[in-house]
Design brief:
Blueprint lengths: L1 H19 L11 H21 L2 H5 L2 E8 L6 E2 L1 H12 L5 E11 L5 E13 L6 E14 L5 E10 L13
Parallel strand pairs: 1-6
Antiparallel strand pairs: 1-2, 3-4, 4-5, 5-6
Amino acid sequence: MNRIATFCAAAAVACTLTACNPSTPPPAASTYDADVKAIQDNETQWVADYATRDAAKITAHYAGDAVLMGPGMPRASGKDAIQKMITGMVSDPALSLKFLAARIDVATSGDLGYSQGTYTMAMTDPQTKKVINDHGSYVTTYRKQADGSWKAVADIATSEVPPPMPAPAKKH
């Protein structure tokens, strides 16, 4: 009987020690709040960079494999194409672009996030040479970089301004 009691006591101690010292490490602390703030701070800086009209600073917010899709513009894929598009945009003296996120979220994995919000933009219409004012919605998807920074990988805007009406047909 003593043998069984000793064995049970030893098993209980072993179980207790094993439960207090699990072999798997505890989960890493969540960086969710810090990541959301980092994306928010990045967008605030991005708007400030648009105000400076510095194409290199603006383009630096994109990852090398990013895609930019804006209303009335062809899709720009890759940082070089994005730099070229933005260089053209900032050469317009009427350009003004501001955006503000209504929502920012980060995946549980901590490596992807997105923002969605609204934008306002003024620019010169290449056809009429008049300043047009645009506004709409955007979604930007971010990927966390090895250095901990967040870079845009997909930046998509949708205008809420209806397209101009076509010119009336001429009567013969």
